[in-house]
Each structure stands twice: as C-alpha cells, then as structure tokens.
Specification:
The protein is mainly beta and 354 residues long. It has a domain at 32-77 and 175-353: 6 Propeller (Neuraminidase), CATH 2.120.10.30. It is built from three helices and 25 strands. The strands form six sheets. Strands 6-10-9-8-7 form a five-stranded mixed sheet, with no helix packed on it. Strands 1-25-24-23 form a four-stranded antiparallel sheet, with no helix packed on it. A hairpin with a 5-residue loop joins strand 7 (113-120) and strand 8 (126-132). The longest helix is centred in the N-terminal third of the chain and has 26 residues, at 2-27. It is globular. The N and C termini lie far apart (70 Å). The protein binds 2-acetamido-2-deoxy-beta-D-glucopyranose (4 copies). The site of one 2-acetamido-2-deoxy-beta-D-glucopyranose has 6 residues, from loops. Residues 53-54, 56, 114-117, 167-170, 224, 226, 269-271, 331-332, 334 line the site of one 2-acetamido-2-deoxy-beta-D-glucopyranose.
C-alpha cells in the first residue's frame, strides 16, 4: 500500500514538473520564429560587439550606450572585459561611438553596467545613473557627465537592502528613482526555480534618501521601467509575462495599475519617443534561444512601437525584426528625431534612419 502511494505521488510529481516545463517553454516562446521587418536604412554600429544592453538619449541627441553586461544565464562574448559606457552624437551625419572615460575613485575592473537613466538638474548639469552588478551584487552608481571632456566623473554609490537584483531604474529627481527587481532570489539555481514555479515575487521599488519602499509587486520578472512624457505614468515591462503594465504615479510615489498591454514577445527595456510619447520596446521574440545560446540558431531581435498606450486600443507596430542573422537578443530601442538605435544584451547595436 505504502509503495503504491509512493508511486502515485511520484507520478503526480513528475506530471507536475512536466506540465511546468511545458508552460515554461510556452511562456519563453520556444516555438516562435521571427518574420523579418528590416529596412535598407539600418546598419550595425562600428565598435560595439559585446553588448549594448541599455541606451539612453539626452534631449540634445547624445546617446549613452552601456556595454559588457555579465548576467547569470545570459550569453557573454567577452567574459574577461569589464563593462564600458559609450557615447554617440545623433546630430552627426554619420554618428560614431566613443568610449567615455570614467574618473578615478571608481572600480572600473568590476564595472558591470545594466540599466541606466539620465537626470538633468536646474543648472543643466547631466547626471548618469547606472545599475551596476560588481561581483554580482546590485548598486546604483551616480556619475556627472562632462560633455567637453567626454568623461564621467564618479560621484557616489547607492546601496540598500531593498535594492537587490536590480535591473533598471528611472530617475525622478536628485537621488530619487524607481527601480525594478527582476528576480527575488540572488542564487542562480533558486532564480531558475523561481521562474519555473512562477512565484511572482518581483517588485518595483521607490528610492529616495529619506524613504525606500516597495510600490508595486506581483510581477513575474519586472524588467525595463520608464516614465511617460507628462510624468504621470510609469511603464513597467514584465519580461516573462510578455506584457507592459501602465501604472499611475501618486503624490506619495505609490503606484497603482491602470492596465496591462499583452504582447507575444518577451519585453526587455522600454523607452518613450520624446516627440510622440509612444512606448518603444526592445524585445526577445524567443527567449529559449537566448537562454540556450547556439550560434547556428541564434536568438532574434524585435523592436515594437506602442501608440496610445492609455487608450482602449493601443496600436502596436513592429519597427524592426530580425531572426538573429544581423542582430541578436535586442534589449532596447530608442529614437531621436527620425533615428533609431537598437541595443542588445550581449551582441551588437543597430543604427537606423526612419
Ligand atoms: C568583444 O570581445 C572579444 C572577446 O573578448 C574581443 O576580442 C573584442 O575585441 C571585443 N570587441 C569590442 C568591440 O570591444
Ligand atoms: C582618459 O583618462 C586618462 C587618465 O585618467 C587619460 O590619460 C586619457 O587621455 C583620457 N582619455 C580621453 C579620451 O580623454
Ligand atoms: C531601459 O530604458 C530606460 C529609458 O531609456 C532606462 O532608464 C533604463 O535604465 C533601461 N534599462 C535597461 C535594463 O536596459
Ligand atoms: C535568417 O534569415 C535569413 C534571411 O533573412 C536566412 O538567410 C537565414 O537562413 C535565417 N536564419 C535562420 C537561423 O533561420
């Protein structure tokens, strides 16, 4: 009797694991292939090869590009090279990238830049906030940007017990930002378990020197975050749920959910078109190909534009899609006056004239 019970339990356990495995493959879009949407007016950006995970463009047209992310489970083509930040001036006829010099006093050897966000103060000084994972920890580094010297002056590091597994930030004011936490556990195997069991323990945090708090929870894996042009709404990408949450900002910085825009692709980072307010999303059409990297059958890239996000029927269009033959693992799309930049987790970066 005991044996039979054990067999039944084992069978039920295996069925549960099997079922979880199938839903996980489904959620990761294992079966999706990309239909190409490409333009003659796109070319790869010279000088960027080992990732361009985040791109942030200033109102003046200067683009910051983060490079060299090392992230558990993701391919890494340059494991021995520390991360770098590049600058590209989109006002130029044929824009080229230039590496930014980082001032002394900052540990450049362990620099592992992830999400970035810029902040411009009353005096027009530009600050770059960078999520960093030195030795797989999570910190937010604040730099002052010196345009003439093409350099970043290191100012300070923010660490807090709630700022764990940080993916992305959006700066609201001096030392004040929202941050996404993309997984709950920090141990890689527990992270896999978390994804497998679909625990939904990831969050959005609000940080200020006076107060740090969780302002939204229940995401499968909260990833990119950005703010609407009127500063009233926050857009959060849930990468493993393949959707974008539109959230209202309250006076006390709490967030409440207004709606969810469901997509059929794993949404990584979000930006807003400064001219139209449209949401632009860098997406992974098939995440299994990203997680099980194979140069013969590489992960593709997809950049979407979402018009009228607040309306009943947002309009979704594909700005760019490629099966990985040109660009692999796109994580962000950003536009500036008819120019489009697409960044990737570990691969190259693309420049297009729209
Ligand atoms: C990318 O990484 C490879 C391997 O480390 C290195 O040889 C190459 O120079 C890197 N490319 C760039 C543009 O940094
Ligand atoms: C970067 O800084 C180093 C010293 O910190 C200096 O030697 C080098 O010339 C600087 N490069 C640029 C492009 O300014
Ligand atoms: C995503 O883009 C936004 C806006 O450009 C930026 O603030 C954020 O840091 C990016 N995050 C990641 C993880 O790429
Ligand atoms: C990707 O598309 C190109 C044509 O655009 C085709 O030549 C290539 O075989 C495709 N690669 C894969 C892995 O499907």
């Amino acid at each position: 009797m005991g044996k039979l019970m054990a067999l039944i339990l084992l069978g039920a356990g295996l069925a549960l694991v099997g079922e979880r495995f199938l839903t996980l493959r489904e959620r990761m879009n294992a079966y999706r292939e990309v239909e190409s949407v490409e333009s003659q007016n796109c070319h790869l950006i010279e000088g960027i090869e080992n990732g361009s995970e985040d791109i942030d463009i200033l109102p003046s047209g200067l683009a910051f590009i983060s490079n060299g992310l090392k992230y558990p489970g993701m391919p890494d083509l340059a494991p021995d090279e520390p991360g770098r930040i590049f600058l590209m001036d989109l006002n130029e006829q044929n824009p080229r990238v230039q590496e930014l010099n980082i001032s002394d006093g900052f540990d450049k050897a362990s620099f592992n830049p992830h999400g970035m966000s810029t902040f411009i103060d009353k005096d027009q000084t530009v600050y770059l906030y960078v999520v960093n994972h030195p030795h797989m920890d999570s910190t937010v580094e604040i730099f002052k940007f010196e345009e003439q010297q093409r350099s970043l002056v290191y100012l300070k590091t923010i660490k807090h017990e709630l700022l764990k597994s940080v993916n992305d930030i959006v700066v609201l004011g001096p030392e004040q930002f929202y941050a996404t936490r993309d997984h709950y556990f920090t141990n890689f195997f527990l992270v896999l378990l978390e994804l497998f069991m679909d625990l939904r323990w990831t969050q959005v945090l609000f940080y200020s020197p006076k107060e740090v708090k969780v302002v939204a929870r229940g995401f499968s894996s909260a990833n990119g975050i950005t703010i609407s042009l009127d500063k009233k709404y926050i857009y959060v990408a849930d990468v493993s749920d393949k959707n974008i949450h539109v959230m209202k900002i309250h006076d006390n910085w709490d967030l409440t959910q207004l709606k969810v825009i469901q997509l059929d692709t794993l949404v990584d980072n979000l930006t807003v078109d400064p001219d139209t307010g449209d949401i632009l999303a860098g997406c992974h059409p098939n995440a299994i190909k990203l997680l099980m990297y194979n140069t013969e059958d590489p992960p593709g890239s997809e950049a979407l534009r979402i018009r009228n996000a607040l309306s009943e029927k947002p309009m979704i269009s594909t700005m760019y899609a490629n099966n990985g033959s040109v660009l692999q693992g796109s994580s962000v799309a950003s536009v500036y006056r008819g120019k489009l930049l697409i960044g990737t987790v570990f691969h190259k970066a693309l420049y297009c004239e729209l």
